[in-house]
Design a protein that fits this description.
The chain is α/β, with parallel strands linked by helices. It has helices at about 70, 75-85, 105-110, 130-135, 150-155, 160-165, 180-190, 210-225, 235-240, and strands at about 1-5, 15-20, 30-35, 70-75, 90-95, 115-120, 140, 170-175, 200-205, 230. Strand 9, helix 8 and strand 10 (about 230) form a beta-alpha-beta unit.
């Protein structure tokens, strides 16, 4: 069974080792696997090369579209597993795009990597089938708020958010650019009875200056709500680049 991956700047598959830059595992050494395709279209998405292909008229703030052939690569699960194992890491972060769109193939991949811990980065609109779910140690759920440009009926699936809220493996990461975004996130947390200690506010931004400016006003809001603050370490370390 094959997987469709995003490509790095060389045109090869985006499989690499680094430190996790966001959320509860920030700073942890991990292997990354970035898959292609997404069911949502965030106007500020910093990995638009995984979904905003030529012919896709969904809006994105920079208006750029990407050649699908140059930004996707399909590999057999055994090839992917060998590349991940060669990185020598004990934990794997599977990201995208929306990785759960390829859940059956992911389950087969993880059968080949029985000793590695697994995090899934997901927008929270879908779920892992049992064969995959049993292998997931942590879900990093990032529900998309209205400023993402996605209609709420597509981005905020109530039964899915309820399910993640009751799953102790799930942490919630809200991308925010204004206090209105924080208020919207807080309303979602209340509606689904999400424990505040499993909620992160993360500033939207792809440069250090923007992140730091937004973190300054986010700190008191985290104190008010009991939420946690997530930085984006990879942006400070490497900039807005692929494979980092």
């Amino acid at each position: 069974m094959a997987l469709t991956l995003a490509t790095d700047d060389t045109g090869g598959p985006e499989i690499f080792a680094s430190v996790q830059g966001e959320g509860p595992s920030a700073g942890m050494p991990v292997a990354f696997l970035r898959l292609s395709r997404c069911n949502l279209a965030c106007v500020w998405c910093d990995t638009a090369y995984t979904w905003h292909f030529e012919g896709d008229d969904r809006p994105h703030r920079n208006g750029r579209t990407f050649d699908r052939k140059a930004n996707q690569v399909t590999l057999d699960k055994r090839d992917v597993a060998e590349r991940i194992a060669a990185l020598g890491q004990k934990r794997l972060v599977i990201t995208g795009g929306e990785p759960l769109l390829q859940a059956p193939a992911l389950a087969k991949l993880l059968d080949l990597l029985p000793d590695i811990g697994v995090e899934i980065e997901t927008n929270g609109t879908t779920k892992a089938p049992p064969h995959l779910d049993v292998r997931i140690d942590q879900f990093n759920v990032s529900p998309k708020l209205s400023h993402s440009g996605n209609p709420a009926e597509l981005a905020l699936i109530q039964e899915r958010l309820d399910a993640y809220a009751t799953d102790p493996r799930a942490f919630f990461k809200f991308v925010v650019a204004s206090e209105d975004d924080v208020n919207e996130a807080a309303a979602i947390v209340r509606r689904h009875t999400i424990p505040p200690g499993r909620v992160f506010l993360m500033p939207e931004g792809t440069d250090s200056a923007t992140l730091r400016a937004r973190e300054e006003w986010l700190v008191p809001l985290c104190l008010d709500h009991g939420f946690r603050l997530s930085d984006r370490l990879h942006i400070h370390l490497f900039g807005d680049t692929r494979g980092t």
